[in-house]
Amino acid sequence: MIIKDLFQDDINRKINGVVKVDQDAEDVIAQELDEYVITRDLKKHFITFFNNYDDAFREPTSDIGVWISGFFGSGKSHFLKILSYLLANKEVKGISTVERFRKKFEDDPATFMKIDSATKGQTDTILFNIDIEGSSKKDSQTAVLKVFSTMFYNYLGYYGNDLKLVKLEQFIDKKGKTDEFRRVFMEKNGIPWLENRSSYTFYEDSIVETLQEVLGMSEKAARHWFDGKEDEENSIALLVSEMKKYVDSKPDDFRLVFMADEVGQYIGGDTSLLLNLQSLVEKIGSECGGKIWVICTGQEAIDEVIKARQDEFSRIQARFKTRLSLTSASADEVIQKRILKKKPDATIELEKLYDAKSSELRNLFSFADATKDIKGYTGPEDFSRNYPFVSYQFIILQKVFAEIRKHGNSGKHLSGGERSMLSGFQEAVQKIQDKDEYTLAPFYLFYDTVHTFLDSSIRRVIERCQRAADNGDGIEQQDVSVLKLLYLIRYIDDIPANLENIVILMADSIQLDKIAARKSVETSLDRLFSQNYIGKANGVYNFLTDEEQDIQRDIYQNTQVDTAEIVERIGRMIFEDIYTAKKHRYSQNSDYNFPFDRMVDRTNIGSINGNMKVRVLTVATPKEEKEQVRFMGLKDEVDIVLDNTNYYEYLENAMKVDKYAKRRNIKQLPNSVQSIIQNHREKASEYEKLAKEELEKAIVNAKVYVNGEPIKIKTESAKVMFNQALDNLVVNVYNKLGYITKNINADEEIISVLNGDYLVSSMSGMEDNREAADEMESYIKMQSSRNLPTSMADIQSRYQAAPYGWREIDIAYVTAMLIREQKVTIKYSGEVIRTNNPKLVDMLRKKSETGKTKIAERKSIDEQNKRIVKDILGEYFDVMDIPEDEDRLVLFIIEKFENQLAHYETLNKRYENHDYPDRQYVQRAIDVINRILSQSKDNIALIDKIIKEEDRLFDSKENMENVEEFFKNQVDVFDKAVELEISLKNDESYLRKDKEAIEALNQIRKIVIGKAKQSSIYREIPKLNGLIKIVEESHNKLLDSKRADAREIIRECMAEVHQLIDEGDDLKPYLTEADNTFKAEREKLENIQELLTLEGLMTNMNGYKSEIVTKIKHAKASRVKTIPSGVKEVTPVIPKKFIKNIQRDEIFPTGELRNSADIDKYLENVRDYLMTMMKDSDGINLK
């Protein structure tokens, strides 16, 4: 079978390409109507539109706006044009449009009835592309209004582009002189009016004459019209008013429909244009009652056009109640019916062919990494329906058209709808129409459909490649086809342009040998890449424009990167991205974390600390040097010789891009160049990712040498490779690591060792880490024998390094074993540190402390001295259980003497502000103990000091016996006596009447004052209890008597005040005040313990009584008598001055004054009393 014979319709018949709304040739219209395919999707939109449109005939409406949306390829313009034909019911070649659609709605008679009903009356349509008609006026805020105004007046037969001329033509028309005006103008100028009215300003004289002749205007009036404004002002209200007048002049079933294509594109994001459209549609809807409709198209739905300005333009959505959203989903259905529809017998044969070749076809169309909807044939029906094309081509071609428009080529004029698709598929099948049924249409054939719409920069590349093929300049014809294909899918993400997919897209036969085709296509790609027609990244190829080729050449051929820079970048990628560890955790014991130095070729990565080393050798290292690794391997080093993969090439390319981009001042370059460089930077990121993947492969397959010895490591992980290599290196470098048999995890374990707990749970010589302790002990002995000072920092540094590799905490633990076993001495600032020192662990571990901590071989105390000291201690402290162990003995000594010192210092403090006996003995005892404890930093010195101070120690003990007894049994009665003597100083004069009491008080004074600091006092203190009793009993009797006197005085004072005030008297507040005062004082006297104070209280009460009495009398004397009615008011007598009389014995009570302080206190009491009496009086009279 020949392909062209398979189709129902002639494949070579003329089919128009892109739909244009102004195409009105009758043949074109007839073909458009007859071949218009109403898909399932389109039928829904016809139903929605005609339901709303037909309802408006029965019920006037303001909802006259229709918005048809859809992206490129959805068929908006075609749908709009078909609607215009239907609404106007235009007769084409003797058949009405509605009648032509009857068959298309055979399966839906109800919808056809609505279409038929809606087109019974006269409907005029004004179909126009607003982007074309209004482009020159788009800068105006009323641009939409002007376009609609122009199209309306053009429709009426006027010259709508000039409103001034429209008004003239309207005026002439109203006079019924239009035909005459045109005839006269023709006679005067020899040219028709309609064809030349756009240039009317050049015919001023002839137009003036015509107006004079036809309308009878004067020359002045006619020229006045010419001298008027160039263009009349218009408004929405004025335009809609004229529209309404027009439709009102027509029958009731008349409709006028404005059909504006590309409104969405015209408005774009212009706020004023959007408002202008909204206002116009709203006014038409409210004024014209559904007789005028506005139908617009846009690439976006009306919601999308306004969504960013929702708060401002919510009303516009209401203006377009009817919204139709078209998609390109039905484009393949249109093509299948108009182009690819097969003859019945051809369909059968093709289905048989599919059944016979189904396995080959499934194998052929196996895309790599493409989206799921990119696939081959689904079955025999799909094969026969789409042949010689494949299902995926419908999807891809739509996206190709959309992307060509999007990326700024001349393809802006290219529609992705079914009309362009029709052209593309028709032209492609025409190229293979004479081939047999095994032929397939390769995707590159569609290039010829779009090439005339492309920018010259694209076409030049293809044309140059074609010339090279024609001339045999290193390019073959298939290379050109591959290049065309790569351009078509340049922006398509759904199907990556890798070798596998390119082979499929180039497939031109069902019987294709895919292996041979793959090799052939790969050769073409290599030729194109070598001559810079295409780029390649991550196995994906891409088409390059001339500009892109120049930049690619500059980057990859003319930009150089030093090998050292690439190696350094490889190092960072290995040790910062792939294997980031700076310390190796030993797999045999995860407690160990060893630092290691890192190196790539001869470049160090990071700081070098002299630890074990990992060196990676790349392709930049000469082969000879790699081979020498086995024989010249360095100590403490693992060498990883990388396998040969493409990591170096990928990184080199990425770095070339980066270097090129930094060298160019990108912001100053044209946008197109900036975009190309940005694309390369994105590729560079991909190169980086690929380099990392390739590096990981190279590491996994690398050769590994430890200290020059090869080792085999089988793994699929680069990280595991490094870990195993370092494990092997650890075994070689740290060969004394095994001395540590127990790893420590906390300071508490070190403290436990210092306490000796480990000695209890283990046999001697079998303790954990014993071998490590022996190793450390030998080293410290050697250092001490050489008189070499050794710090804990030295110990930590030595045993953390090779060949030990011990952890810092483990080293501290081993040191603690030696301390506990009394094999080493720890000193800090010259002081011997005991095992119970809370800071000892920090001294063994903390970096801030280890340098200050000295460690040396332990020197023991002389055994004879130890025995002497134990005897001294036993007798001095009266103890039997004294430790034999040196450290415990020293701790015992320090603890005992520190406790004794604390006790004596407590006693010494008690002497402050007290005259206790024998304080000098306490202070001497403190001095002796302090001299002993001053040697506590050195065990030997401490023992020697105790022996030296033996006599003073025992003298001190003897001297302190009376002192200890005093503070134990006598100090309380002594303190009581002192306090009593002090408290009776003011009352001593009252006690003189009791000779026994006064004699007892004098005896107390003799003991606590006269003999206070004498040793003989201890015999006198027992007498104090009896003496205190005598004095207290006498004093208490006097207090009781004095309190009774005070109570009586208060009673008498209260009675005197009460006698002055009668019941109901208005002076009663004075009585209340006096009662409160006397009651308070009566309560106070019960707690007073001094006779002198009670005497003062009694004086104060008498004084207060006199004061309150005086106030009451004065108040009574000051009362103003009421003058009876009719009696003449007399001048009141001025009262005499009020002088208080006070007895002197009230002010000056008797008593004994011993010192100046007593005198001051006495006088202060007198002054306070006199000041109180002076209040509310004019003076005081002392009697």
UniProtKB/TrEMBL annotation:
Please verify whether the record's keywords include Metal-binding: no
Q: Where is the Probable ATP-binding protein BrxC alpha-helical domain?
A: 866-986
Tell me the ranges covered by the Probable ATP-binding protein BrxC winged helix-turn-helix domain, including all copies. 736-859
Q: What InterPro entries does this protein map onto?
A: BREX_BrxC (IPR047679), BREX_BrxC_4th (IPR058036), BREX_BrxC_helical (IPR058037), BREX_BrxC_wHTH (IPR058038), P-loop_NTPase (IPR027417)
Q: Which UniProt keywords apply?
A: Plasmid
- The residue ranges of the Probable ATP-binding protein BrxC 4th six-stranded beta-sheet domain are 559-729
Q: Where are the transmembrane segments?
A: none
Question: What is the protein's given name?
Answer: BREX system P-loop protein BrxC
> What species was this sequence derived from?
Ligilactobacillus salivarius
